[in-house]
From TrEMBL:
<keyword id="KW-0325">Glycoprotein</keyword>
<dbReference type="InterPro" id="IPR000276">
    <property type="entry name" value="GPCR_Rhodpsn"/>
</dbReference>
<keyword id="KW-0297">G-protein coupled receptor</keyword>
<keyword id="KW-0472">Membrane</keyword>
<feature type="transmembrane region" description="Helical">
    <location>
        <begin position="284"/>
        <end position="307"/>
    </location>
</feature>
<feature type="transmembrane region" description="Helical">
    <location>
        <begin position="36"/>
        <end position="62"/>
    </location>
</feature>
<feature type="transmembrane region" description="Helical">
    <location>
        <begin position="114"/>
        <end position="133"/>
    </location>
</feature>
<comment type="similarity">
    <text>Belongs to the G-protein coupled receptor 1 family.</text>
</comment>
<feature type="transmembrane region" description="Helical">
    <location>
        <begin position="74"/>
        <end position="94"/>
    </location>
</feature>
<feature type="domain" description="G-protein coupled receptors family 1 profile">
    <location>
        <begin position="55"/>
        <end position="304"/>
    </location>
</feature>
<dbReference type="InterPro" id="IPR002275">
    <property type="entry name" value="CML2"/>
</dbReference>
<feature type="transmembrane region" description="Helical">
    <location>
        <begin position="211"/>
        <end position="232"/>
    </location>
</feature>
<dbReference type="GO" id="GO:0007200">
    <property type="term" value="P:phospholipase C-activating G protein-coupled receptor signaling pathway"/>
</dbReference>
<protein>
    <recommendedName>
        <fullName>Chemerin-like receptor 2</fullName>
    </recommendedName>
</protein>
<keyword id="KW-1133">Transmembrane helix</keyword>
<keyword id="KW-0675">Receptor</keyword>
<dbReference type="Pfam" id="PF00001">
    <property type="entry name" value="7tm_1"/>
</dbReference>
Amino acid sequence: MEDLEAALFEEFENYSYPTEYYSPESDVEEKIPLGVVHWVSLVLYCLAFVLGIPGNAMVIWFTGFKWKKTVTTLWFLNLAIADFIFLLFLPLYISYVAMNFQWPFGLWLCKANSFIAQLNMFASVYFLMVISLDRYVHLIHPVVAHRHRTLRNSQVVIVLVWLLAAIMGGPSLYFRDTEELNNHTICYNNFHKHDPNIALMRHHVLTWVKFIFGYLSPLLTMSICYLCLIFKVKKRNNLVSNKYFWTIVAVVLAFFICWTPYHLFSIGELTIHHSSYFHQVLRAGIPLSTALAFLNSCLNPILYVLISKKFQARFRASVAEILKYTLWEVSCSGTAGEQLRNSETKNSGLLETAQ
């Protein structure tokens, strides 16, 4: 029963070791109110879903269907698509946690759901990095941007980003598995059931690859690009640089705050293979850090729209156009109704006169 309890409390996306790693002898006293922690993580998941789905859908609608295709709008469109799909499957995670980590959806949906989550997580992070690189080249090296910053080249970059994200998320299709423990089914990373050394090696490799290529490299790229932009803009105009500076700080801080705990707890999870001393900390921290990472997908459309003045202007113009069209339709329908009533009144008067 101790193995079942340990397994059920582990976060679905990070459960990557066999249940025998949790032995009754190594369990520490439960001091963290895990029930409260999981309810807080559920609230954060729901918040990310409620805010992120309409926010990203709005960006997809405007950049994909209402505005002219440019390099910038393509970046925003694909970033919003990645975040939207990432959040679209969130109800499965919410159900999993709400049902006390019971996975009733089957093996293939366990694999597919995890792969789609990983695919769009990496795609979202990489598009954030691409946007920062694009802004750096566009503003610091305008000649290079004029030659190579084309729709065709941006489409090639978009395809490469999605392919790289698919490669990074690919291990989920292979390693994700389901297992039934005392009539309780879990969805976890089955690196190897029978050889702990192979399981340990695979877990270490995948965790560090995800940390280096899914967090550290994008964070360093964004920080360097935006620091160069801040110094460049500051030389031109202090008034503009202040607003630009704080917006960029907000973007980098949002990425850092949302993703750092997730990767730190993923690395900390590796210690379970050697010692379960931090067992309770991981059981409490992994769900919360995962929920915090999900929140970044609902913050992206807000923060990146704030950076682009053209985006703001187009958004206001589009909203004004929609409101104008809506009012015009209401006005026309009201005028038509009034004309119809006048016509009916006139016809009634003619009939009374004829009688």
